[in-house]
């Protein structure tokens, strides 16, 4: 990658928000600061999932750290509109998705070729991610649209799990998560495809709302699949979906609590 890809405005992507209108140093101010949830949310999730990480799956904390990297990359991209920023933003999203899928997808959804081996599944997903990373560098203009397609398998897997889940709280969270995801996608499409109309209404900020909604949807999906994982592979741990600050307030911050404190044996 040459130095020109580090330059401001080198990305072929420019969102609806006007450039350098609020700050002379930040291209898209609202789109930049709206990534704040990616920075302040994951450290709190690391705290809420401390028992899960210790006794069930330590890699859950890697997912939260990757979300922080997503936020930093997105903020850098929208602040500079550089090609490097765009690629960092998009590739970190790809790797968060693939890491979550690899580590927490229930084995019953693995293609038969993997013979229920998570190790084989993870290796395959890593190869796919590396290939997609290389292609994203070659065709950066279509990356965002390609990433949107990841919502299809994610939603399908969630649908399959919600069909069999017995905990109604988990089911309701899954429905809310899907609704938030759909609203986020509508915001993304409107900002990208109908910018002129929203600009005439003096509201070219839907991509900022996308950042907020997609963080809520992304971390909620991670919580759900963390629950499915332990229900599938460690049911004796008696996982429970809980909420902070009050467990009776289902619009709070969801997390997974376990009741059997015995470290997970490596049975990959």
TrEMBL record:
Enzymatic class: hydrolase
Which amino acids does the record list as binding Ca(2+)?
14-15, 17, 19, 28
What GO MF annotations does this protein's record show?
hydrolase activity, acting on carbon-nitrogen (but not peptide) bonds, in linear amides; metal ion binding
- Annotated function: Hydrolyzes the sphingolipid ceramide into sphingosine and free fatty acid.
**What compartments host this protein?**
Membrane
For this UniProt record, the keywords arranged alphabetically read as follows: Calcium, Hydrolase, Lipid metabolism, Membrane, Metal-binding, Transmembrane, Transmembrane helix, Zinc
Task: Write the protein's name.
Answer: Alkaline ceramidase
- Which InterPro entries does the protein's record reference? ACER (IPR008901)
Cite a GO CC annotation: membrane
Q: Which organism is it from?
A: Aedes aegypti (Yellowfever mosquito)
What residues does Zn(2+) bind to?
Answer: 78, 207, 211
The membrane-spanning stretches of this chain are: 29-49, 61-81, 87-105, 209-230
The topology of this chain with respect to the membrane is: Multi-pass membrane protein
Q: Which EC number(s) does the record attach to this protein?
A: 3.5.1.-
Q: Which family does it belong to?
A: Belongs to the alkaline ceramidase family.
């Amino acid at each position: 990658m040459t130095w020109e890809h580090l330059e401001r405005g080198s990305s072929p992507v420019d969102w609806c928000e006007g450039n350098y209108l609020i700050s002379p140093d930040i291209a898209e101010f609202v789109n930049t600061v709206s990534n704040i949830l990616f920075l302040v949310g994951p450290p709190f999730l690391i705290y809420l999932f401390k028992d899960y990480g210790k006794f069930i799956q330590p890699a859950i904390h890697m997912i939260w750290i990757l979300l922080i990297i997503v936020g930093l990359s997105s903020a850098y991209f929208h602040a500079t509109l550089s090609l490097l920023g765009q690629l960092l933003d998009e590739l970190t999203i790809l790797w968060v998705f693939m890491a979550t899928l690899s580590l927490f997808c229930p084995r019953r959804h693995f293609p038969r070729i993997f013979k229920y081996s998570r190790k084989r599944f993870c290796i395959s997903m890593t190869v796919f991610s590396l290939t997609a990373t290389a292609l994203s560098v070659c065709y950066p203009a279509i990356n965002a649209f390609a990433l949107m397609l990841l919502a299809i398998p994610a939603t399908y897997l969630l649908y399959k799990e919600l069909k069999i889940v017995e905990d109604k709280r988990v089911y309701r969270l899954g429905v809310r998560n899907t609704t938030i995801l759909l609203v986020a996608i509508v915001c993304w499409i409107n900002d990208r495809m109908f910018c002129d109309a929203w600009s005439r209404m003096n509201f070219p900020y839907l991509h900022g709302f996308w950042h907020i909604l997609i963080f809520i949807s992304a971390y909620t999906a991670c919580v759900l699949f963390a629950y499915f994982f332990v229900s599938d592979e460690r049911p004796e741990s008696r996982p429970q979906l809980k909420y902070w600050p009050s467990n009776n307030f289902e619009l709070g911050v969801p997390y997974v609590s376990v009741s059997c404190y015995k470290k997970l044996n490596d049975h990959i």
